[in-house]
Amino acid sequence: MTTLALSFNDVNFSPVQQNGQTWLTASELAGALGYAKSDAVTQVYERNKDEFNSSMTLTLKLSVKGFGNGSSEKETRIFSLRGAHLIAMFSKTAIAKQFRKWVLDILDKEVGAPVAKTHKSERTPLHDAHAMLVAKTKHLNSSDAWKIINQRFGTEHIEDIPYEAIPVAVEYVHHLIALYSNADKMQIAKPWEDQDVQFLMWYVPKIAKLIKNEFYPALTLLRSEYAAQMIGMAQEMACHANILNQAAIKNGMTTYSCLGGQAVHTMKWYLEK
Known about the structure:
elongated, Mlu1-box Binding Protein, DNA-binding Domain, 4-stranded antiparallel β-sheet, alpha+beta, 10 helices, two-stranded antiparallel sheet, BRO_N_domain, Bro-N domain-containing protein
């Protein structure tokens, strides 16, 4: 494989050729993902090392510049493009989602190694988590639940989530389950009867939907580093607001009494165009 000239935003990578593949150093990955510290990616890896195998990351002694014109060899952690994609899955920086798409484009178009779709058997943990999410939420059907998961990972179909990212997706779904489970704890307090809370229940999903349908696509076309940050916030906003809306619906509330009888928002409404 020939050496690729790779750059992401302002980061120009110095790819390492190893085992016929292109690898990226941990420090350059840290810069590309927006971390202030050069060892941030190594720390992400250490926290999740059981998810990686030898085809995704390894250490090599690479020549690094020293004082003056001298150079020395240093033990350096490197990641294959698939490994870099998994690192970005664990990363919570604003630019991580955009970076993940960039890596997949490199794998598919420049490297010539398309990311294989997963088999249903490989997605069993994710299907189990999805079923639990639907059971817990009551007002979220199977199709809508898959839409939320796909939106989080920037995929059109669930089989497009890479195999190595399935554990990350499962963790995300359990995060949603925990959020929606909070709705059952609101039966006594009934916060949705408060006027200010109703305004939030009404406007937060509307703003999140505006971001999802209008601002996010526009920022993506502009290759803005804020695109991933905005869709991530919109997703969280919609999910948290839906906890209140779901709890209100379960208690028989169909309209916002403090907002002139507007219908209570549902997650299905948010997911629609």
